[in-house]
Amino acid sequence: MSCQSPIVVALDFPTMAQSIEMAKRLDPKLCRVKVGKELFTTAGPVILDELHNLGFDIFLDLKFHDIPNTVANAVSVAAKAGVWMVNVHASGGRRMMEASANALQQLPDQNTLLIAVTVLTSMDQSDLLEVGIDLTPEQHVKRLASLAKSSGMDGVVCSAQESAMLSSELGKDFVLVTPGIRPVGSAQGDQKRIMTPAQAMAAGSHYLVMGRPITQADDPIAVLTQSNQDLGVAI
Ligand code: C5P
Q: Are the C-beta atoms of 162 and 135 separated by less than 8 Å?
């Protein structure tokens, strides 16, 4: 049975040993896990096998952005490795996203979710202007999310602050994956615009990426269990 919880724990660790140690303290019935660039670059694809062997669904967060053929092939390899979700940059454009979606459709029996990153939350309006985009971050997010949908993406990564707007613009089935989640009482860290898990789900998010509130907690499984309970997830 697949995981009923919307929580995806970001395994942001510098070594494979640390990430596996954390994964062993979690439970695949209570969360999925996210493997990002740091962990994947240090550990290599074997990290996917290790986490699959522990029973976890994996979001491979490598944010591919390259020519259509290269990204389509990379997405295809990720799906063959059995990852649950993989992502690309929407700013790679329609042809890159369509090629990726087509590559997945050609694989038998695959159901990997293909998600686009719109505007990195680290970028503000002046950063956008410097790379030639004369729009507010919100306008650009909307434009890229619409492009992602019409290019065959299953959803986008977005701030929970954008979830309500994207959900009404693009429909409730378009998958919204949101980081910047903080349970009540946990440290904000370097995240600027945060929401609690319940607020983010109410705003229309489908999946919640949570890193440090769980991985840096004294008792990670307790925070995870409490967050699932707050969401009313029946486990
Ligand atoms: O520790 P924390 O909960 O802030 O981790 C959030 C995770 O989500 C990190 O892996 C971070 O790289 C990722 N992320 C993010 N903001 C984005 C995209 C991804 O925080 N816009």
A: no
**Is the C-beta atom of 212 inside 6 A of ligand 1?**
yes
Assigned CATH for 7-230: 3.20.20.70
SS3 125: helix
Q: Which of 29, 34, 63, 142 is catalytic?
A: 63
Min mean pLDDT across 43-47, 90-94, 158-162, 173-177 is at 158-162
Q: Which pLDDT score is estimated for 235?
A: 74
Domain boundaries along the sequence of the chain: 7-230
Q: Residue 1 has what pLDDT?
A: 57
Q: Among candidates 177, 155, 153, 36, which has minimal Cα distance to 96?
A: 153
The whole-model pTM stands at 0.96
Q: Is 29 a catalytic residue?
A: no
Centre of ligand 1 to C-alpha 211, Å, is 7
Q: How far apart (Å, rounded) are the C-alpha atoms in residues 88 and 74?
A: 10
